[in-house]
Amino acid sequence: MENTSVSKYTVSFGLALALASVINALLVVAKEKSPTVMAGLQKLTGHHWVSHSAIILVLFAAFGWIFARANGGRGIQITANSLIRTLVSGVVIGGLVIMAFYLVGD
Q1: Whole-prediction pTM value?
Q2: Which of 35, 43, 63, 98 could form a disulfide with 16 if both were Cys (CB 3.0 to 4.6 A apart)?
């Protein structure tokens, strides 16, 4: 087991990236399946992709900040290898959800 220390912000925003990737995929599916969601996103900024991107960026920043504040401001404590596994898993899961949706569910 590796005990390499990484900063609380690296961990926090790495975890936020993994979570935002999964939420991004779910938002893609939701807006493609629901005309109401698509119309709502379009109304927000004039184009659904701009709204989609803004939502994901805000969630990424918010989760990163929240995760950095965990444990009394010390951030979430995990090893570098665990962070890498979590980050890669989140991105892969997000990609698979989108790919499966367009291959099977569309």
Answers
A1: 0.89
A2: 63
